[in-house]
Design brief:
Shape: globular
Distance between the termini: 36 Å
Structural class: alpha/beta
Low-confidence stretches: none
CATH topology of the largest domain: D-Maltodextrin-Binding Protein, domain 2
CATH superfamily of the largest domain: Periplasmic binding protein-like II
Mean pLDDT: 85
CATH class of the largest domain: Alpha Beta
Length: about 290
């Protein structure tokens, strides 16, 4: 008999691989850790191979596990899309989503496209703005869902859906001019109130590194163009650094930065279309983290 993949077991495997531990996977799936372990063993038995090597202090995928993870994400995404299209295709409504522009550009396009395909009757209104403006507008009732940048403060301000290191970066061709700690650091930043700008200036002040703002842009494309032109250094999440940029480290006299964290906030009361989009964003981004 050919092997058959149980989607519940596959979902447990993908969640465990993404979470990096059985404990965190159990929290995400609302299952006990022994149940997670049993399901992984059942999947390994079905496939006849070891998927995860784990010990009290380490956790890593085997080669077979890495292969299955890629297939698993695609299988589950397609299955969820099909179920949504067949069971919720008649769902109608409008959802107003606010998000930082850089995060929308880098991480949300595919997520929202999949939702739109599964729910053609739901109109999405997506607005980009700076985080502090999004929070104010959310409080004023302008959005049903907002994604906001925040410091790692726990679960009180929304649900965390993304976490990534923040790094200093500049044009690869101009990096030599910014690596002298004795010189003022020229900065390319978003205007106030920007969370990344605030973190960068605070970290530089605490480290005693002099700086000055040379270019301010409200758009990611504008800031990247200024950096490419060699005007200065900017702060980006590690996964958003373009291939022609260079990451600057402690050798350049620059302080470490806290992680970037994105949280989802949901307005109350929640209608079915908004609730469905929020769940889709959370599950999609959890798979990508």
């Amino acid at each position: 008999m050919p092997h058959r993949l149980d989607h519940d077991l596959l979902r447990t495997f993908v969640a465990t691989a993404d979470a990096g531990s059985l404990t965190r996977a159990a929290e995400r799936l609302h299952l006990s850790q022994p149940t997670i372990s049993l399901q992984l063993k059942r999947l390994e038995t079905t496939l006849g191979c070891r998927l995860i090597e784990r010990s009290p202090r380490s956790f890593r995928l085997t080669g077979e596990g890495e292969t299955l993870l890629g297939y698993g994400r695609r299988i589950l995404a397609l299955a969820d899309e099909a179920i949504g299209r067949l069971t919720d295709s008649r769902m109608i409504g409008r959802v107003r989503l606010g998000t930082p522009e850089d995060f929308a550009t880098t991480h949300l396009s595919g997520v929202l496209a999949a939702f739109a395909r599964a729910h053609p009757g739901v109109a999405l209104e997506v607005t980009t703005d700076l985080t502090l403006n999004l929070v104010d507008r959310f409080g004023a009732g302008e959005f049903d869902i907002v994604l906001i940048k925040r410091d790692p403060v726990g679960p009180s301000d929304g649900v965390r859906v993304w976490r990534e290191p923040l790094v200093w970066t500049c044009s690869a061709e101009q990096s030599a001019g910014f690596e002298d700690p004795a010189k003022d650091l020229p900065l390319v930043v978003s205007p106030h109130p920007c969370v990344y700008r605030r973190r960068a200036l605070r970290a530089l002040d605490q480290a005693g590194r002099n700086w000055h703002v040379v270019y301010t842009s409200t758009s990611l494309a504008g800031a990247q163009a200024a950096v490419r032109a060699g005007l200065g250094v900017t702060v980006l999440p590690a996964g958003m650094v373009p291939p022609d940029f260079k990451k600057l480290d402690a050798k350049a006299g620059l302080p470490l930065l806290p992680e970037a964290e994105i949280a989802l906030m949901l307005a109350q009361p929640v209608d079915p279309a908004t609730d469905r989009l929020a769940g889709h964003i959370v599950s999609s981004l959890e798979q990508a983290v």
